[in-house]
Amino acid sequence: MKNIIKYIGISVCVLMLNSCDSYLDRQPDDTLTIEMIFQKRSTTQRYLFNVYSYMVDESNTASNTPWLGASDEACITYLQRGYCYMNNGAWSPDSPPYQNFWKSYYQGIREANFFMLNVDKCPEINFEEKLQWKTEARFLRAYYYAMMMRMYGPVILVGDEVSDITSADLDLGKERSTWEECMNYICEEFDAIAEILPEKQETNWYGKPTIGAAMALKARMLLYSARKLYNSDDSFYKNIVSTEGKHLFPQSYNAKKWEWAAEANKAVIDLNLYELHKEYTDEKINPYKSYAGIYLSLWNSEVIFGRALDARQWRYVTTPRGIGNLSYGGVSATQKMIDAYAMSNGRYPIIGYTNNGANPVFDPIANYSEGKFQNVKNPADGTTYSNTNTMYMNREPRFYVSVCWSGEKWKAGSTTIDVEFYYGGNSGPGSSHNYSKTGYLISKMSDHSLNHKNSEYGRFSWPICRLGEIYLNYAEALNECDPGNADILKYINLIRERAGVPNLEEVYPEEVKDQDKMRELIRHERQVELAFEGYRFFDTRTWRIAEETENGPIYGMNVMATDHKPKGEFWVRTIAENRVFNKKHYLFPISQEALDRNKKITQNYLW
């Protein structure tokens, strides 16, 4: 460990911290020995920043992750990205997209272990600060394990072991631990960490972990573990046995898992440190500003763990090309996601599909229609559109905050355009592949007061964990272990109240009495409330429904039509993509490179 290493300066864009940009951007003048690094407070702190640097910026969804591009809530037009290969089934252990996640997270774990091993050597830091920094590194280690587990299932637990820091291959030389061993480990770690972390970080260090962050991540992972992918009597992972003779996955259903998930999520609520973000007009909740403000109001009271980010990467790919400058609008909502939003009366308009998803079945009492054209008002900004498809009429507030349809005005500061998603339109296909494949874009998280044309992008709050998720987690777990418990409706209705829609029992009085129907209502509410935040990808997989939701045609409007005139071809539901999903795709394959380095690793099912 006495090798000389070059210590890397870390940009604040890589960290989730809200401090000292110029300091973090500076490069060291010299290479430093290990002994030198841990002699000074400044270099020791910079090593801790290095441990943070392995956090993936998941807001850069067009490049860094497949959580939107390979989910049924979004379509992304850019070619030769990882989600493209996932969607057409052209991935394998020999060429797995995002294979660097496995290596990078283990590098982060190694760096965390190395930091914890050495931080006590620093003579310029007192005991309390050493404990705080060591606990932050310990939190990051558990976080990196959790991020891998949601992709790969069981992973290799290395404990406090530190491999050679100069090693490029990270040959861990160990078999994967079982799912239950992994879950027990990270839950115990998050519990211990929560005993030490503060309730709130100082203003300059918002984004560092807190007690709430540790408890929320534990609660989420317990919910995932309770769901069908890891908790059933008919698991198709039953026969995966490690080289050590252990079954890597649970062998039977355990009802207690739902109780553990419910208790863990309720414990986060009972901290009383967080509240749903709300903004008011005339002393009444403004659902449009409230929902938008979760992301536009930095470090608001709903964010349990998150990052305050430069918004340019998100807004590059979600702003329609017609605005100009670096506007590549190609991250689009699917028609299925458009259909998911409730009407203003609180009912969901589509109750199913026929003809392989081509034809929606309408709820007869939702007051919904499509294919008719009349004046439609967007209540978020008061704009009225003439001769507009009635499918966008009388929808719930989250709809108007979250999506943009063809013909709608996109406002960017002093610049406003009428968006045209058809062939040859200002933001459609034809002269560029920077266009929406479905005839929609995601406007959630966009600050329309900023002029993108003049390179004004601003910042936004990317919530890694927020209270709205915890409410939904708790309701889901409680519905499985204690159906009919009054807290189920209580916390779902708190979400709906903020969203400006009626209480669930007012809209579905009979359905809320039925556990199975309530399960679907909770899932539907989760799909809408957490849309485009990266949850849906893991929800459909852990619920084990992705063979239905991610397989086959994905629909949008007909963007190859040459106009979007009323009743024209543009308004016909049209296949935007045909996707492939089968059982092996529920979990990522471990790369062949990693398997070749470490012969003890057992591959995932069917890969």
- Strand runs, count: 16
- Please mark out the parts with pLDDT under 50 across 5 or more consecutive residues, or reply none: 1-30
The proportion of residues in beta strands is: 5-15%
Shape: globular
Class inferred from helices and paired strands: alpha+beta
Provide the helix percentage. 25-40%
How many angstroms separate the termini?
37 Å
Rg over CA atoms, rounded to whole Å, is: 24 Å
**What is the strand arrangement across the widest sheet?**
1-5
Question: Count of DSSP helices?
Answer: 20
Largest sheet: 2 strands, antiparallel
Rounded mean pLDDT score? 93
Task: Describe this protein's structure.
This protein has 607 residues and is an alpha+beta fold. The strands form eight sheets. A two-stranded antiparallel sheet has the order 1-5. It has a two-stranded antiparallel ribbon with strand order 2-3. The chain has a two-stranded antiparallel sheet with strand order 4-14. α3 runs antiparallel to α5, α6 runs parallel beside α8 and α14 packs antiparallel against α15.
